Each structure stands twice: as C-alpha cells, then as structure tokens.
Amino acid sequence: MSKLNAGLVQTSLAEASIARLDQLEVFGSIASTNTHLLTQPAPAAGRFRVAIADHQTSGRGRHNRRWLSPPGSGLCLSLAYTFAAQREDLPALTLALGVGILGGLQSLDVGGISLKWPNDIVALDGKLGGVLTEVQSGIGAGVTVVTGIGLNIDLPDDLDFGLESDWALRSVDLKSIAADVPERELIAGALIGSMHVAMATFDAQGFDAFIESWQRHDWLRGKEITVDLLEQRITGIAAGVDADGALIIDTGEERTRVISGSIVVANLVDKA
User: Fold this and answer.
1) How far, in Å, CA of 184 to CA of 187, rounded?
2) Do 181 and 249 fall within a single domain?
3) pLDDT in tens, 207-222
4) 61, 107, 173, 232 — which has fewest CB within 10 A?
C-alpha cells in the first residue's frame, strides 16, 4: 500500500481545522508518530500539528505495550495541541478524545463502535483501535498534549497479534464492520478534524461536554470486571465514569473510583 497523500488529507479537513493547523507530516514508515511530535516545536495555544504514518516500527500503547501496525494494515496518527494554561483535568482528556474519534468514524458511516475505559476503541467485542495521550515537556504557562491513535483498517488474516489484553477477544479492523471502507486519506481527515474539535471543546468546557456521550457508548458498563492495581484487586460491576473520568466500580458493598489499572472482563464469550 502506498504512502498517504498529504494533499488529499488536508483538502478533506474543514476550514476551521485548516485555519488552526501548523503542520501536517505524512510518513511511509516511522518509529512512532507520538515520539516524533514530542520532539518537535510545540504549537501556539489553540493550534495543532499532525503526523501520520502507514507503519510504525516502535508504536506504543499504555504501560509501554507495543502497538503492532504491519505495513498497509492500519493508520497511525498523532496530533499535538497546546492548551493556553496548565490543567488539572488532563486525565479525562483521553476519554474526551475517544468520544471525538467515535464521532469522526460515525461521520464516515462506520457504526457499531463503543469505548472502553480508558483508551480503547471497540467493535465486535474486539480492539479496533487505541489512544495514547502524552504531555510534552517544556516551559511557559501552557501545556502541549500529544495524542496518538492506532486504528486497524485491513488486518492480515494469518497474523498473530498476541494481544496483551484480558478484555478483548480479538483485534478487529474496519473491513470487518464497514460495508465500504473509506480511503485512508478520508479516514485520516475525519479523525484529524474530530480530534481537533474535541481538543478545542475540552479546552473550553472540560469533560462535562463529553460525559453524556461517553456513558452512552461505554462498553464496560454493566459488565463484571476485575481491576488490577499496584497493591490490590477490585472486582465488581462497571458502573460508568465519574465527572473527572474515573472508572466507577460497584462492588456490592460500595462504589469505588479507579483512576488507573489493568482490567480483566469476566465471562466474555466469543459470539463470532
């Protein structure tokens, strides 16, 4: 599969996004789009930069897990956005961006998508994509956040991805859930636009603007789960997210808030 056409990606963007875009870079192969943007100059407040790749050789997920992206199988896209001031609510940004990404895919008539706390895009009880948000170190009053998304588009049938997960039954691609898979340039443009809008909305309104949509698309809600923390395990029913993006677990005795941890889903049966 050939390198994406940067011109086609940019022409698919709305004028509001083009006006705020500092730079759009497209790579055939790169170690990591997130790592690349973390080394680049930070955009001015309210502006953003984008890096896209067909293939990553050192893609990363949460807890430094590898994100596998064989050439031609998916889309790796990162966006750097600068907030004018430091924020205490950044832990909820990943959830807000998940809502934005879901909206971008829905704009391409891709349905059947859910969100799994805190950073996974889900379809057919499998992992369609993942989100990784990192803060760029620097000086000044503001803060620059680099968010990467890895999205499966057309996975090889015979490839063992070795999912490092106790929640997903399989890796899923857009080819499996969409009648017609859009061109990758259109997918990239939709994701860039939706992520930029989500960043700007979060900048102005925080997670309040996203929590209702998150609750509607919460894949974990109502499922029995176990969360592995550093020094304990919590088992109960996933009961949505709190106003700050924390996961709520109903243990039967109390409702517990979790801000980080690895999740195991009980009784997940493959219906495919």
Assistant:
1) 5
2) no
3) 999 999 999 999 999 9
4) 232
Task: Using DSSP, state whether 185 is helix, strand or coil.
Answer: helix
Residues 21 and 143 in one domain: yes
Residue 120, domain extent = 6-214
The CATH code of the domain that includes 30 is 3.30.930.10
pTM, 2 dp:
0.90
Helices (H), 80-183: 93-106, 174-177
Strands (E), the chain: 21-30, 48-56, 74-83, 114-116, 120-123, 126-136, 143-152, 224-228, 233-241, 247-250, 255-258, 262-265
Burial 54-89 (b: 16+ CB within 10 A, else e): bbbeebbbbeeeebbbeeebbbbbbbbbbbeeebee
Domain assignment of residue 161, yes or no: yes
The count of structural domains within the chain is 2
Quick check: is 91 in a domain? Answer: yes
Question: Is residue 159 within 8 Å of residue 70, measured between CB atoms?
Answer: yes
In a domain, 272, yes or no: no
Give the tokens for residue 249: 């677990």
Q: Is the peptide bond before 118 cis (omega within 30 degrees of 0)?
A: yes
208 sits in the region (left: phi over 0; alpha: psi -120 to 50; else beta) called: alpha
The 10s digit of each residue's pLDDT in 107-165 is 999 999 999 999 999 999 999 999 999 999 776 789 999 999 999 999 887 554 444 45
Q: Are residues 128 and 49 in the same domain?
A: yes
Q: What percent of the chain has pLDDT over 70?
A: 87
**Cα–Cα distance, 224 to 108 (Å, whole number):** 32
Q: Are residues 136 and 241 in the same domain?
A: no
CA–CA separation, 149 vs 195, rounded Å? 10
Q: What is the pLDDT of residue 65?
A: 54
